[in-house]
Amino acid sequence: MITKIRDILKKPSEDNGVSDNLLYLSRILLIVFIIYTMAIGILSHIEGVLIHGVLSFAFTVLFAVCLFLTYKSRIKTLATMICCLLLVYIFIFTIGYGWRASFQQMIIVCIFLFWYDITRSTFMKVMLSAFAGILLCVISALTPTLDVFISSDTDIYRLIIYTNILLSIICLCIIAYFYCTQFADAERKLYLYNKELKKISETDPLTKLPNRRYAIDELKEIEDNYEENGNLVSIAIGDIDFFKNVNDTFGHDAGDEVLSSLSALFNEYMQDLGFVARWGGEEFLFVFKHSNGDEAYLALDTLRDKVSHTEFRFGEETMKVTITFGVEEYGPRAGVDETIAAADKKLYRGKEGGRNRVVY
Hints:
Layout: H1 2-9, H2 20-47, H3 50-69, H4 78-97, H5 106-116, H6 122-142, H7 155-201, H8 212-224, H9 226-229, E1 234-240, H10 243-250, H11 252-269, E2 274-280, E3 283-288, H12 293-308, E4 312-314, E5 317-319, E6 323-329, H13 335-352, E7 358-359
Parallel strand pairs: 6-7
Antiparallel strand pairs: 1-3, 1-6, 2-3, 4-5
Helix pairs in contact: 2-3, 2-7, 3-4, 4-5, 4-6, 5-6, 5-7, 10-11
């Protein structure tokens, strides 16, 4: 039942130019006003205050019409329309009951509703708020010292005072809830959007591995925190042997398939060891966060053997490749750049020495 009611309240207007949140908020406030004016109207008739009862029922009908119109088209001035109706209500009843009855407090609700309407310019919001303030001053000047409708000594008058104060608090709480929820939703969407952008900017689109930018940032962080963490770190560069032959023989699509399949294999293998990133072309950077050079060498040799025995399929073609690694243990004196350069030199020594090997 609650879900059904919420769906009805959140039903979009036929006018796409209206904010969904503004519609939802306006409908809730209108329902509160309808219940309030109807209750006050019934109570007034019971107490014999017919003028107040008739006026209350009249505004109940007007608020109900506004609620109906929120589901129809051409309601771009929705918030303004509701606020204008509220201002008329406030003016009539404050003049009729006096300042003490607290009808004028609802002007604050109008001002908040003005500012919640995203379809209005800031200038228009300022002007409407200024008008509400001027109206409040006019009401204050015109408010009689004596009560017109009901004596201030009656129970119903005191009930009206407390009800108006409660109504103002309820409306302000509802608007505040929408403000906070909308702000939190906007912050969450912005956070997720920025997170996704960061992920895209740090991910190689073909292999889905971290790219060179990500690797450089991670290595910089490792370098900055090396002495504090005291972890052993080793860095390796891996290059696929004769990868140009794969592209020339089977085509670039086949080459891309080999790169993607190898990357998935590398990523899975490095899960508990550190991370792997695409360094460029057919080169990959391997970072072992808790391994010295000897341990990294053994891990890479196992990976090298695994790659050499793996078959890669593309269509009806079956391909095999090998990979050569150069690995160097990181030291704070050498720094990241020199460590990568040393690993790269060892990689080329491995290429010159016959490929399909790990050089340390």
